[in-house]
Write a structure and sequence with these properties.
The protein is α+β, with helices and mostly antiparallel strands and 213 residues long. The protein has 2 domains: 66 residues, RRM (RNA recognition motif) domain (Alpha-Beta Plaits, 2-Layer Sandwich); 94 residues. The protein contains 3 helices and 6 strands. The strands form 2 sheets. It has a 4-stranded antiparallel sheet. It has a two-stranded antiparallel sheet with strand order 4-5.
Length: 213
């Protein structure tokens, strides 16, 4: 990490600068006419030297310390690297956030579609159950109707049988009444005839008795 040393007195030697900067860490000094460069291996050593040695008097002159142009370009490159890495990191973070959001949306959609499919399946099952119930009810109604029809038929048959029985019994009664009447008539006729024959025979007897007298 390179520092620029300006405003160096012409009598300043390299040993003077080495003695000054050796306290802050390993370094390499390149002395020119009235300026020099000091290169530190560690940037922390360079930062410490910049803080402590700036405006220090060496060989009667107040030296000026700053980051060299090489260091600026190096730092700029590092800054660009860091900023690009930060950008990349922030981009990757935002990408990962977006990915997580997308995944979350997908999961929600899937869960919604699953819940929809479940609810659809449930509704289908319910519909099937309702259809089965309706079919069973219709079957039961048909059975009840058939039973009622059978009962009505049986009742009609029983009524017809009862009517036939009544008719037969009436006919039988009428026949019995007719035969009884005819018997009655026959017996009264017989008794009449027997009375008449008796009266005739008595008349004959009386006439014969008169003749004998």
């Amino acid at each position: 990490m390179s520092l620029f040393i300006g405003n160096i007195h012409h009598s300043t030697k390299q040993e003077d600068l080495e003695e000054l900067f050796s306290k802050y860490g390993p370094n390499k000094i390149s002395l020119k006419q009235n300026y020099a460069f000091v290169d530190f291996k560690d940037i922390k050593d360079a930062e410490r030297a910049l803080r402590k040695c700036n405006k220090k008097v060496v060989a009667g002159a107040e030296i000026e310390l700053r980051w060299s142009e090489r260091m600026k370009s190096h730092r700029h490159r590092n800054h660009d690297k860091h900023s690009s890495s930060r950008r990349y990191t922030s981009r990757s973070r935002s990408d990962s956030r977006n990915r997580r959001r997308r995944d979350e949306r997908r999961r929600r959609r899937r869960s919604r579609s699953r819940s929809r499919s479940r609810s659809y399946r449930r509704s289908e099952k319910k519909r099937d159950r309702d259809r089965d119930r309706d079919r069973d009810r219709d079957r039961d109604r048909d059975r009840d109707r058939d039973r009622d029809r059978d009962r009505d038929r049986d009742r009609d048959r029983d009524r017809d049988r009862d009517r036939d029985r009544d008719r037969d019994s009436r006919k039988r009664k009428d026949k019995d009444d007719d035969s009884h009447e005819s018997k009655k008539r026959g017996s009264s006729k017989d008794s009449k005839e027997s009375k008449e024959s008796k009266s005739k025979s008595s008349r004959k007897d009386s006439a014969s008795s008169e003749k004998s007298d």
